[in-house]
Amino acid sequence: MRLVLLALSLFIAGCASSPPLAPEADAPWPPERLDSELQSAVEKLARGFRGRVGVYVRHLPSGRSAALRADSLFPTASMIKVPILVATMEAIHRGDLAWDEPLVFRDSLRYDDHGLIGLLRDSARIELHVAVEAMLSASDNNASLWLQSLSGGGARINEILAARGYTGTRMNSGTDGRRADWERYGWGQTTPREMSHLVREIVDRDVDIVSPQADERMHRALTRTFWDGEALSAIPPGVQVASKQGAVSASRSEVLYVHAPSGPYVFTVITDAQEDQSWGADNEGFVLLRELSALFWRTFEPESRWRSASDGTFELEQVE
Q1: Residue 208 Cα distances to 21, 202, 231, angstroms
Q2: Residue 256's closest CA among 210, 308, 203?
């Protein structure tokens, strides 16, 4: 039955000029419905922010949702590494790459000397999965650009996104015809709603973005991030979360799929044109990420014995 439904969805997508997002059609969750109280709380937290804010959040079992500029374009920063991951796994699925394929690093591949891959010497050998882990866990830009090239480049990544029905999420860097988009949005662009849907496609088991095995591998990889000081800090450490973070001077962003006790919820928060371009924990964008994440946890898990610390750091403590 699952194969029949998947085949039917692919047939429809191939016939339609503007196919709907696959997660909206295929995910097993009820339709989303506006939670007016949550919507007001989101708007209150975003009010007065010195920059643009985009938010999309949805509690999947109930459909409760809120949105703020959810269909507007924003920079992805390092969240573009989610589409790179999908394209890499598709290349593995096609047989063009292998998870344990040996790679040889060259100095010409070095983008900067940050992260794990940037520290490699010329002619160093690693396996492909090491580059994937570095791209996601450490958000290593050297690994990401390497995998972008290995998976077929920006044009191929955008073809995959378009075939899945994504109209706003695109790779800009290193992609012909997208210089104007690169000048405006940087490495990549997306909308809060589309980035949330993309992670849902990876995590939800009723629709495969690549294959059941590839999706499971991507899901596991997305749960192992080093960057847990913002939105993740407002969620108990025992709760599994698939996530990706992004940050450049004028934009801070995160996408999270939270396997909460009462059922999963997904959200994306992106800022743009921030006046505060500092890099401390008190940056306005980082603070907003923590506040919105804490709001969503309290809203969807009201009976939880976990609460954010009273000092505003969002380090969690257990309430007796």
Answers
A1: 13, 7, 27
A2: 203
Within-domain flag for 135 = no
Give the SS3 label for residue 221.
helix
Do the Cβ atoms of 33 and 65 come closer than 8 Å? Answer: yes
CB atoms within 10 A of CB 129: 17
End-to-end CA distance of the chain: 47
Distance in angstroms (rounded) separating the CA atoms of residues 56 and 207: 21
d(CA 229, CA 199): 20
The b/e string for 255-277 (b: 16+ C-beta within 10 A; e otherwise) is bbbbebeeebbbbbbbbbebebe
137 part of a folded domain: no
Residue 51's CATH number = 3.40.710.10
pTM for the predicted model, two decimal places: 0.88
Write out pLDDT tens, residues 168-215. Answer: 999 999 999 999 999 999 999 999 999 999 999 999 987 789 999 999
pLDDT 10s digits, 236-267: 999 999 999 999 999 999 999 999 999 999 99
Residues 6+ apart with CB under 8 A from 115: 134, 138, 139, 140, 141, 142, 143
Q: How many other β-carbons are positioned within 10 Å of the β-carbon of residue 35?
A: 20
Q: Does residue 306 sit within a domain?
A: yes
CA distance 173 to 181: 9
In a domain, 123, yes or no: no
Note the helical H segments in the chain: 2-15, 22-26, 36-46, 81-94, 128-137, 141-150, 153-163, 179-185, 192-203, 212-222, 284-300
Residue 93: HSE in the Cβ half-sphere, 13 Å Cα cutoff:
17
Q: Comparing C-alpha atoms, which of 34, 18, 19, 25 is closest to residue 206?
A: 25
Q: Domain span at residue 285?
A: 2-97+151-318
How many structural domains are present in the chain?
A: 1
